[in-house]
Write a structure and sequence with these properties.
It is globular and about 50 Å long. The chain is mostly helical. Helix 2 crosses helix 4 and helix 3 crosses helix 4. The chain has a two-stranded antiparallel sheet. The termini are far apart. Helix content is 58%, strand content 5%. A hairpin with a 5-residue loop joins strand 1 and strand 2.
Length: 130
């Protein structure tokens, strides 16, 4: 039996100020996997089934699934469906790569260490509300 979004506990906020539906879906599945509520190997509903259940376009769900796959949160196995990927350090690797790219860009722009650090901290504080 394929799990449904009620097992995923997905809620899409359609209000004007809310994030795009695909981003809400991506974030909720990613958080569920990271928190262990969606265990490794958990089979996500098909794109069509989840889209129908949530009242979204299939392309919206497909976009979220592609983003999750790019982030290493899920893996698609053809006819076997889309499954929560093994919890490895893909998030750590990706953040280290992003940090390295930022450091290189800040250096090219001529920022000092303190300026680059302040800019990164400001961006993180704005994102996390800290």
């Amino acid at each position: 039996m394929t799990p449904t979004s009620t097992h995923l506990k997905i809620k899409i906020d359609g209000s004007a100020g809310a994030a795009a539906p695909y981003e809400q879906l991506r974030a909720q599945i990613s958080e569920g996997a990271r928190a262990g509520r969606l265990p490794v190997g958990f089979r996500l509903p098909t794109v069509r089934a989840l889209a129908e259940e949530l009242g979204l376009a299939a392309n919206t769900v497909a976009k979220a699934y592609r983003a999750l796959e790019a982030d290493g949160v899920v893996e698609t196995r053809g006819r076997n469906g889309t499954l929560v990927a093994a919890a490895d350090d893909s998030a750590s690797r990706e953040s280290a790569t992003a940090a390295q790219a930022y450091a290189e860009r800040a250096h090219r722009l001529g920022l000092t260490f303190d300026e680059a650090t302040a800019a990164a901290l400001a961006a993180l504080r704005a994102r996390y509300g800290g």
